[in-house]
Amino acid sequence: MNNPLSPKRVVVLIDGSRCSLAALHSASELAAHWQAELLALFVEEQDLLRCAGYPWTREIGLSGAVRRIDVEELEASMRNRAEQARNALERCARSSGLSWHLHISRGRVVQETLDIVQTDDVLVLGRVGYARARGLRLGSTAREMARQAPGPVIVCEPQESAERTQAVRSAVLIEAAETGLETLEETLPLMIGNEVLAAVILDLSSHTTSRSICTEAVPKEATSAEPSPREASPREASPSVSATDEAEIRAWLQKRYPQAKLITTTYIGEAEVARLVAHHDIDRIIISRRHPLIACNSADSLVESLSVPLLVLPSRAP
Amino acid sequence: MPKPQPLDEDRLYRTCDPTGLGFATTSELEPIEQPPGQDRALEALELGTEINRQGFNIFVLGPDGSGKLHMARRLIQSRANAQPPPADWCYLNNFDDSSAPKLLCLPPGKGEQWQNDLDELIEELRNTIPATFESDEYQNRLQELQQQLNRRQREAFEAIQKEAEEHGATLLQTTSGFTIAPIKDGEVMEPEEFKQLPERERKQIQQHIEYLQEKLEQVAQQAPKWRKEIQEQVHKLNEEMTLLAIGHRIQQLHKRYADDSPVAAAHIEAIRDDIIENIESFKPQDNQDSMEAVINRYRANLIVSHHPDNGAPVIYEDLPNHQRLVGRTEHHVYQGALLSDFNLIRPGSLHQANGGYLIVDAHKLLSQPYAWQSLKRALFAKEVRIESLEQVHGLWSTVTLEPEPMPLHTKVVLLGDRMIYYLLLAYDPDFPELFKIEADIEDDLPRDTNSEQLYARLIATFAAQFQLRALSSEAVARIIEHASRVAEDNLRLETGGRNLADLLQEADHYAEQDDAAQLIERHHIERTLAAQEARAARLRDRSKEMIARGTLVIDTAGRQIACVNGLSVLQLGNISFGRPTRITATARPGKGQLIDIEREAKLGGNLHSKGVMILSRYLAQRFAADSDLSLSASIAFEQSYSGVDGDSASVAELCVLLSAIGEVALRQDIAVTGSINQLGEVQAVGGVNEKIEGFFDICQQAGLTGSQGVALPAANIDNLMLAERVREAVAAQQFHIFALHHIDEAMHLLTDMQVSEQDSDGNWSSGSVYALVAARLERFTQSREISREESGE
Fold first, then answer.
1. Cβ separation of B179 and A58 shorter than 8 Å?
2. Which of B133, B137, B174 to mutate to test the interface with A (most CBs of A within 10 A)?
3. Where in B74-230 does DSSP place strands (E)?
4. Is the ipTM of this complex over 0.85?
5. From the centroid of its chain, how far is CA A266?
6. What are the residues whose beta carbons fall under 8 Å from the beta carbon of B467, sequence distance 6 or more?
């Protein structure tokens, strides 16, 4: 399928971790599907190299083992990982006949990535790299990218490598505001061959008020605190407005994805999303950045409660 | 001494009066429980089954075809039916050591229930437990625990990160751990830049970083402990969920078996614990093999089960080899290796007969390698161990099963012929320890009115058992007469075994051919007996033919010096027949030797030699009591090309020797049989019926002269059960049977001369046979003296 609207470039972040290799795999599949270019980024962490320059610096292993970090060794290890990444990339690309490129730079991952990624690019990355070890389900890079990347971001699962034979069932989480339809439209070019839109989850609670509550700079405490049902209730949308939205969306779906299920809910939290994913056997969640779950910085807990890949659409709105 | 007179016809056969039997056909008769005349064996069998002590196993000994198995089985079965059924036995997995399966004993009939209960439990496990793990409740709780661990780790690292930030440092992630670095404006400070800082500040930062590194170390060291704690909580969660899912069922089973069998109840508990331990295998996954492997261990391998209404088991093992006696363990091949588990244990006949009786044929048992050893081992140890021969003999060293041995309380009944019994008794010291009861089956039984009636009932029983026609009383009478003939005794009957059954079945066949007759009649029996005889008569007929053609020289008329007709019996399988043999002698002066040519040619057996020695001593004592016997004589069986044994020709040999010495002609139309002692008395021999019939047939073939006959020991008269053709000839005065008590009577009969007594001076009455013998011997003495003088000795 060569849709003129489909992405021209797939950018994948590689750090050599297991999760990033899974991301590479997904990215090469996507690139092959869209006949897009595959660009892999490997960033040598400036901070770590600097740190290694201190004579007292020690690396504390997960087992508690302590050892000295040497700059040269660290650089050699980074080169080695980059080489491994190149090999992996070559293997993936060769099998699907892609044009590819590996970009190695030195600096800080988020900044280096933002410098390269453009609006038309789809950014693919693993949900967590080496930080998995310290109990994180979502790495800092993934979190920042989901928020800041100019184009769509796909956060991959570590174990998503098995060959799929059945169709991928996706669900779109849309906000009930007028932007809901926009989100759906944005979804279209990003759908891949064996993907079906299985469900559209219409979050009525996100109507109008959501924007006003969530600002760009949400206090940090709010990040992990789940909005309780009681808190949610005053934000419930007036039925008349939601009814209009619902009808529009239904009409849109009728035209394009008649088999898709429209699920409306007045309260959406990460637990509810996880329940819906399990219940409807969903393989991928698509969400817009303007959706309060992302916008209100609860992406961490959303990802934590999910075990399916997440596609975050960039917000077109300023 | 008077000349022996021919026997009356009625002494030659004992008829059975059909009217005396008291029935018309055997359908009127009650079947008989046990064969008649076996009281001794039956009493022994009963005693053996009653005594419940170690070693009181039974050996039933008797000839082949005497119906040992049938008799033993019948008696034991009736006793077993009255006994309570023994326990059911199962092999179960041993959760502590799967190579040593456990044995479970349950009341009769409960084994199957136990097996079904476990199968149902397994079915329930297969469905319920995976469903429990798929449930939202379980998934959520599991995730909560995982999140708890993540949160704990995250919080610990976040705390360090926060502390680091407070001291102008940051936590950095490396590929295999963490490190701490000083920061400035959100970036790690260049070491060069750091060096520019005042020394106090540098030192402070370094101290902080070293402190944080230590703290980080502590946190990292705690991480495994947290993981373990969470694992324990997961384990507890698994346990809790499992018990909620199947706890009720487990409890129910536990309650059901707690009273009857604590072992079963304990096994249920072990299953519960094992489920919790192996809970991972029950989690839904693509590959169900691991769950199947786990739950298959919960099954019961029911190896012995009895219906509670049945009695004790009676097992006949027709192939008593080691494996079939003590059981075996099967294996299946998995990736080139032989694997086994308790489900593959197969019981042996000792297991199946436990609490009851095991009947084994001794000959079959002894001809199977190590089977006898294995049986003895089990009986001594009072337990059955399932071990292969390779294991027993240390030839198998790979890991294999060692199932718990089953306590053994079984009575073993061995069946065998007497030879095996006495050989075992003589050579196996274990045998008398283990088989203390001998049940000796009689070959025949006394014949009287009562036993004839019992015999008729036995015939009726066989007829019913083989679904044959009923027999008329005449037919039964004929069979009774035949049984006497087989017993070689008109006062006894052969115990009806296989031969009787064969006879009846063949007769039934002829009755079927006979326009589907309703009854088996006397003529069917006659036809069967004739057919049986004819089938085996090839050699007899050939021998008769050779005599008729003169190839074998037998005279049945006239007189001849130094030549007499002896009688021998040839035994071929079940059939034997008699045949006359020409015995000749020579006599000349000598030093008192008697050459037994058969012995010299190594064709004579020991018994035959003994007979010849006896007669030579009798001769010497009779004619040279006080002096040397100057005789060199020889005796030979003419045209005998194979061995001769037995002393039944010694009367004939003495007669022919006397004839040779005295030069007296002997009658060739009379054949003689009988053994002799040193006093000249004639003693009984075997096979008289066949011998008489054998000579009669030859005479009949040559033409009966009316003077022909057979002389036999008087002691053998009771053995006479002669064929009808002989009896008819005797009745018609065409053939004669004489009974002998003493050698003198035989000589009288064969020479038609006075044999004579010695007077007080030792002189024989003149003209008598012995006077001629004594005179010839006197001449021998003289001629020996002359020749001695001539040679100057």
1. yes
2. B174
3. 88-92, 102-106, 169-173, 177-184, 187-188
4. no
5. 24
6. none
